[in-house]
Amino acid sequence: MEDEITTIQLRKSVVSALKEIKKYPRETYNETILGLIKDAHETQELNKFIQEAQESKMKELWEEGDYSGWENA
User: Fold this and answer.
1) Which residues contact 58 (CB under 8 A, 6 or more apart)?
2) How many CA atoms lie within 13 Å of 10's alpha carbon, on the beta-carbon side?
3) What mean pLDDT comes out for the span 60-71?
4) Is 2 a member of any domain?
């Protein structure tokens, strides 16, 4: 079954912004938006990884009773 297609309304400023970030001139808005969604997911995953690393290090420091690294956290 083929994906259904819908019509959405966008402000002209949004369409202009989408045109500016296209990777190539014939890229569709659908492809451009999918790329933005992919980038957002990757950014979210990176932020989650960084947060988990920071939490792990802070737990390690707190368990040791060493708060001297706080300013570098």
Assistant:
1) 73
2) 14
3) 66
4) no
Token representation of residue 4: 């259904």
Residue 55: DSSP 8-state? H
pLDDT digits (tens, 9 = 90+) for 23-65: 999 999 999 999 999 999 999 998 888 888 888 888 877 776 6
Domain carrying residue 43: 12-66
Whether 71 is covered by a domain: the verdict is no
pTM of the model: 0.64
- The number of distinct structural domains making up the chain is 1
The first and second tokens of residue 9, run together, are: 């309304």
Residue 63: CB atoms within 10 Å: 8
Whether 68 has a pLDDT exceeding 80, the answer reads no
Residue at 41 is within a domain: yes
Residue 5 lies in a domain: no
